[in-house]
Write a structure and sequence with these properties.
Helices cover about 35% and strands about 25% of the residues. By secondary structure, it is of the alpha/beta class. It has 2 domains: about 1-105, Rossmann fold, CATH 3.40.50.170; about 110-200, Formyl transferase, N-terminal domain (Rossmann fold, 3-Layer(aba) Sandwich). Bound molecules: glycinamide ribonucleotide.
Amino acid sequence: MIFNIAVLASGRGSNLQSIIDNIENGYIPNASVKLVVSDVNKAYALQRAKKHSIESLYLNPLEFKSKKEYEKLLIENLQKRGIDLVLLAGYMRLLGNSFILQYKNKIMNIHPSLLPSFKGLDAQKQALEYGVKVSGCTVHFVDEGMDSGPIILQEAVKVCENDTVASLSERILEKEHIIYPEAVKLFVEGKLKVEGRIVVND
Ligand code: GAR
């Protein structure tokens, strides 16, 4: 079986790229990125999709009456392509309940902190301002809350005394590009079991 993946991205799409690369080099077996969706017309993620001949779709949220209407069209587009797994890769919008129910435990997100610390926007800045000595990144399943779903993988990154938001973000991003493909590989190999909020990796 080939797992059909959709990636939702709002920006530069380096995590999308790491998923594409790891499918192309065989690290993630039996998977294909079928569709890249962005809520931002100029998102570089859309260009990356085109470079790899992956279908891409820009959906402008302002053209919809509500989030529900927006996500109805999004779901239709995913169903048309038989999507098995949805990856949020720098998608800067909270998903609504109808979307989450439709793809329960089939939506993953990457977040640039060690959750449950520093949820939401500017996680690296939050970590620096709080003064933590270790931060990192988390891949988790998406539930109805914000950055609150069951945790799949995490990787720690030391915070240095002279770190800026940019330097810390860069070191965290390197780890993101490792653990996101790893989590997707575990998923497509059927090795992830969700028990309540605990993800068992067997
Ligand atoms: C990544 O650092 C990702 O963890 C973060 O946005 C960046 C997207 O980079 N996501 C969030 O903050 C979600 N709350 P990319 O577009 O190069 O993948």
